[in-house]
Write a structure and sequence with these properties.
4% strand, 6 helices, 2 strands, mainly alpha, single chain
Length: 110
């Protein structure tokens, strides 16, 4: 099935409120074969990838499993597979450096 990104984000928020780690939620989502809907506009893609990165970085680290999931999302969003690793790195560094979604969108639309 498919989840809207906001539904997926809510799932993470509720899970964390009840003591479930993002890594455990990732595993549940993967084994349940649930995937977020693919946004159409580049702005929506950036917003979703930014929020996904923030969720993954919430504990101050990015596990390899989280990177792998993120990379799959990047490819699923229509970005070229050969660019996926660089895109993942860019979003992680942006979130670590406290860049806003607006900063990223401005750079892309530059």
């Amino acid at each position: 099935g498919y989840l809207d990104f906001k539904e997926l984000q809510t799932l993470y928020d509720i899970g964390v409120e009840h003591g479930i780690t993002p890594e455990q939620i990732n595993q549940l989502v993967l084994t349940a074969n649930i995937a977020p809907k693919v946004p159409e506009a580049i702005e929506e893609k950036v917003e979703c990838l930014y929020d996904l990165t923030r969720m993954a970085w919430a504990d101050g680290k990015i596990a390899q499993e989280e990177r792998d999931i993120f990379k799959k999302c990047v490819i699923r969003y229509g970005f070229l597979p050969e660019n996926a690793e660089g895109i993942v790195d860019y979003f992680i560094e942006s979130v670590k450096g406290n860049k806003s979604k607006t900063d990223i969108l401005n750079k892309i639309n530059g």
